[in-house]
Amino acid sequence: MSKLPYSFYQNPDVNDLAVQLLGKLLFTRIDGELTGGIVVETEAYKGVEDKASHAYGGRFTNRTQVMFEEGGLSYVYLCYGIHHLFNVVTAPKGTPHAVLIRGLEPFEGMDVMLRRRNMASLKPNITAGPGALSKALGIDKGLNAKDLLGDEIWIEDNGLIFNENQIVASARVGVDYAEDHALLPWRYYVRGNKFVSKPNK
DNA sequence: GTGCGGATGAACT
DNA sequence: GTTCATCCGCACT
After folding, report:
1. How far is CA A183 from CA A51, A72, A121, A174, A176, in A?
2. Could you report the per-residue pLDDT of A37-85, keeping only the tens digit for each?
C-alpha cells in the first residue's frame, strides 16, 4: 500500500484523473479510528470553464480558494445545510480543478462506519452517495483543505485497476443549473458496483 | 444586511 | 413521486 504521490494530483486533465481515481482507496483516521473504502464513483469539475464548478468564471472566495491551490488537497463543503461533500483538489496551483467522490465500497473500519451511519448491518447506502460516504468516514468541514499526503485523510493505490468496459461515463448528478454543461459525461462509475449512488432524478 | 437556493438523503404517501 | 431537514455561500442592496 502506498499513498498517491504529489505528482498524481498535478495532472491537468481532470477527467483523466477522475477515471484514475476509480479503484483507489480513500482513508480517514479520526480520533485513532481508521476507516476507508474503494472509490467506485467520481465526477470531474473543470475549474473556471465549467459552469457546474464552484470556481466557474474564476470565482475566488473563502470557500473556493482551496480549489486554486496545488493539487493534492481536500475540498470539503456543506451542501443543503446537511451534507458534507468531499472533493480532491487537482492540477497545478492556480487551476481550480476538483474531483467529487460520490461512491465508495467499504474496505476498512466497517464497525466504525456502521456506528457513524447509525446502521445495524452493511447495506449499499452506507457509502453510496457523496453525503453518505462523508458521514461514514467522519468527513466534515474540519477536514477541509487538508494535505492528502497527511495522516488524517489520504488516498492509496493498492494496484486495483478497472478496465475500460468496467467504467461507465454519464452525466453528472444534481447540476441542472449548469445549462449547456449539465449533460457533459463527466461522471464515472464502476459498472454493476453496489456502492455507486442512485441519483434522485 | 437580506434573500435565494444548492455537486443530498431519508422518510414519507 | 413528494417532502423536508437545516445551513451558509454568494450575489446584490
Report:
1. 11, 27, 36, 10, 8
2. 999 999 999 999 999 999 999 999 999 999 999 999 999 999 999 999 9
Residue A50, nucleotide of least CA–C1' distance: B7
| pLDDT tens by residue, A112-159 | 999 999 999 999 999 999 999 999 999 999 999 999 999 999 999 999
> What is the greatest pairwise CA distance in chain A?
45
Q: Is there contact between A62 and strand C, defined as CB under 7 Å from any strand atom?
A: yes
Contacts of A60 (CB under 8 A, 6+ apart): A68
- Residue reference for cell 497545478: A92
Q: Hey, what amino acid is at A177?
A: Y
CB-neighbour burial class of residue A130 (10 A; exposed 0-12, middle 13-18, buried 19+): buried
User: Which residue type does A4 have?
Assistant: L
Task: List protein-proximal bases of chain B (any atom < 7 A from a CB).
Answer: 5-10
* A33 CA → B13 C1’, Å: 40
The model's pLDDT over A8-46, given as tens digits with 9 standing for 90+, comes to 999 999 999 999 999 999 999 999 999 999 999 999 999
Say yes or no: Cβ of A48 under 7 A from any atom of strand C. Answer: no
Any idea what DSSP says for residue A187?
Answer: E
